[in-house]
Amino acid sequence: MTLVLSPEDAGGISDPNCIETPRQIQFNGDDLDCSSLTPIHTDKPSPTTPPTDGIDTTMDTTPGAYDSSEADTSTTSSTPAKKTRRRRRRNKKKNNTAPSTSASNSTTTTSTTNLDTTGENDTIDSITEEEPAGATNKSELSPNPFNILLRSTKSNLNGKYNTTLLEASSVKTIIGISRTQILNLGINDVKIKTIVSKASKLTTNILNFVQKYSDTFFSDFNNQKMFFKLCIYVALYESHGFSKINADFPVLDMIGGYSEITLDTTGTKLTPSTKKQVHQNNLDYAVLAYIGHILIWVLFLQRQARLPLSIEKYDIELSQTTIRQHIGGVHLWSKLIRESATMNAKRWKHIYKFRQMFPFEEDQFMLIVRFMHLEGEIP
Length: 379
Prior knowledge:
By secondary structure, the chain is mainly α. Helix content is 47%, strand content 4%. It has helices at residues 7-11, 68-97, 103-114, 120-130, 135-141, 179-184, 190-197, 201-212, 221-237, 239-248, 251-255, 263-266, 285-304, 320-327, 345-357, 362-371, and strands spanning 3-4, 18-20, 25-27, 38-39, 164-165, 336-337. Strands 1-4 form a two-stranded antiparallel ribbon. The radius of gyration is 50 Å and the shape is globular. The chain starts with a strand and ends in an 8-residue tail after the last helix.
């Protein structure tokens, strides 16, 4: 057992059985009266092991240089401090394991434990209390972390369709082949077969129709005149264009029997209309309009090259102003701008859909024109 003596006790020991040391006294035997000594229990296995808390244990041997009360105070105060810190760490781990309801609550608990009582905890608590109750719910409902609802910046006509369409790029099946070559190649040429096989569904249906009746229906000039004018008018005026041509020609009698251009074959769905007199036949106006836009495109190429117009040979008059008023450009696949003075919202909606539905397949267009035997030079 190790005992620490006060200065008075250290100087008055005269028992020969006791051996005096600078700071500690070891005793042998049971005849030592140590009732006046102050016992100190230590957890260290050896008195020579230096403490880990950094306290200097070196003692001055001069009388009165060492005060045992100071040693008691430092020793007893340091040991509970370690236990207190350990206890706080264990409490902190327990608090962290508990489920937290929100990020703000966990932040407040941590700050209260670690910060000194200087008023900073009150500030954190006040900020947490002033936060709106519905803020967390909004962030959970909205995928945007800033709770901002983004809307489209397009200035559309009726919320769906823009008032301007950029120029479309043509689709070339065979790179390097010219329009003139397509018009002059043999019908059994591998390039012609390739162009036919690479056509879209709607274009393929039109190619089948014009190729099938190329030597019968389209070999007659009157049939060509009626059909070309019908397609152009349907492309510009839709159902009203059909009514105008039907007043001059027996359209249904001339082309009503061709299944390739009927609704039963194409599967096109009509938009319900309150006017029952608009569409009372089985013809697909979309197919007629597609052919009409192809003819308008050919007309644009001839005007651009300053060549004689093919439509003039069929007594068809069509100015550039009329085309712009009803299409919005020189042809369907050029840059289109809605003419608000002459084009209503419904018409622009149809132009918008025609642009998406009718592919700009230039090589296939030349084959269609070839099978219809359109007269005139095409650059």
